[in-house]
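Supplementary Note 2. Why include the ligand at all?

Several targets in our set were suspected to adopt different conformations when bound, so apo predictions alone were not considered sufficient. For every target with a known small-molecule partner we therefore ran a joint prediction. The input for nicotinamide-adenine-dinucleotide is given below.
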Amino acid sequence: MTPTPVLLIGGGMIAHDQILPALFQMQREGRLGEITVCAQHGRTVKALAEAPTLRKAFPERSFRPLPDYTQGDITRRQPELYRQALDELAPRSVVIVATPDQTHYGIVMDALRAGQHVCCVKPLVLDVRQSLEIEQEADQRGLLVAVEYHKRFDPRSQMARTRYRQGLFGELKLGTAVLMEKWHYRHSNFQNWFTCEETDSFVYIGCHYVDLVHFITGLQPAAVSVYGIKDRFPNGNEGYLWADARVLWENGACLNVQASLSFPDAAPGPNTQGMTLYFSGKENGAWLQHSDQYRGMKYSFNEKLDSPGGTQYVEPSPDYFLYQDFGGPGLVPWGYGVRSVDYIVSEALRIEHETAGLSGESALAERRKRIAEIERRGIAATPGNSRHNELVCQAARLSILNGGREVEIQRKPPGVKFRSAG
Ligand SMILES: NC(=O)c1ccc[n+]([C@@H]2O[C@H](COP(=O)([O-])OP(=O)(O)OC[C@H]3O[C@@H](n4cnc5c(N)ncnc54)[C@H](O)[C@@H]3O)[C@@H](O)[C@H]2O)c1
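The joint prediction is reproduced in token form.
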């Protein structure tokens, strides 16, 4: 059987740092066919194709670039080119969507209409109605849609989930989570789009911990209030660069999430993040604490690292993404970022492999059966089993723009509304 081709739409930071290396490794292992990367500009795919880290790790690999940067104007913007790439792809291949948040809905729907299984970076969409449409379109066609929440593939998340479900922690009552990105983000392209009207620190980064608390406990969020503090970017734009969120859960538990673009550039590590959860058993309390940026390593180099936010003293994390030298050729990517992409793509390949001899209605029914099972297992985030993320983000935006007013989450039918007084 010819290995399945894959189309990666978007060639920016996350494509370079995590997704393309994971796909190259799967291809190297004979599990994937041709990889096409489609960006808006030729210059983006050119930079990706020539990226020194990728060349060093995958000297024997390449992808088909769209636009073809060897011909034509690499600065010409071609936002519709991905549609041509979708047309060229054999039906029920795999499409990875790694474009900015507000483009996900349109691109995911186009990929589904082209008959493709989809893996989309988080957040799937910004409005819960869009996630319902995506779910319906995918179900009609028997296609998998999975959202790449890689914290779910961090071994410590898996350990906590297993133990929670064994009853070792009892029931969640209180929790506090923190995710502070470095100050230098304010000087990046963030200042052009991370404005009060578009997003905020909680919706962009803090919501990872809401998904994680759900992943560990299975609880559903019930209400959200977010207090945001406005601050100015160097270009004068205003953003909610500090946010404090209170998320109430269906059992009455409360999670406090603080997020910001404020962690000192001089501090070690690319950010500070972690969570502490407090639980109640029948006759005892229980406790869980994760330091998610400090994984037990401390390095002090003889010079300061030459990168944005680079420091001389660092606390690197080997767990998210790491290139390992196993003697070549190239290097082998490893970490929960790689496992997450591999897991989702492998599930799409498995669905196709197991239903390969079938056609028509019976093929559709068998694909749906497998997708329902993936959704039920709850390891991969699907539109249906991770709708809490869209609901929390939608509620959070409403709250932060209204001075932190509490917003209730309704699950059936899914929606959000202000909690009425009294
Ligand atoms: N922790 C996480 O899970 C995590 C981390 C980083 C980014 N992300 C998500 O990944 C997505 C991309 O983020 P990024 O940091 O890589 O952004 P980026 O700006 O570096 O890259 C975005 C890419 O999308 C491309 N693009 C935009 N519109 C396109 C179109 N119509 N056709 C083809 N390509 C198009 C751009 O050309 C660019 O290459 C965002 O949704 C972001 O939230 C998730």
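The mean pLDDT is 96. The first helix runs from residue 13 to 28. Comparable summaries for the other entries are listed in the accompanying table.
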